Here is the input.
Amino acid sequence: MLIRMRLLSEYCRWRFDRKLQSLLSEIVGSKESDLVFDTTALFDVLSVNLGVLIWVLDMLVKEYVSVGLFDAAIDALFPLKRRGFVPRIMSCNFLMNR
Here is the structure.
């Protein structure tokens, strides 16, 4: 999982949209126990750049919703709220429209 976190961080740094989306899709869609995704760890890694953090959160919510994990999508929003950040309206709308 550490390698995937590093890849996420690098993809974010270089704004590799498609690679990031593909990696998030792989992580979210995986049934393997070693790919359990810890959103808190992701936020710790990306908290340096708020813009990137919100951008990744949007992608993460869309991936969770696309595989039918609505509870996980909602749970991904809560750590951000606890840290004083508000998710983008697009993430909320995407979640509500599904």
Q: What stands out?
A: The chain has a mean pLDDT of 77.
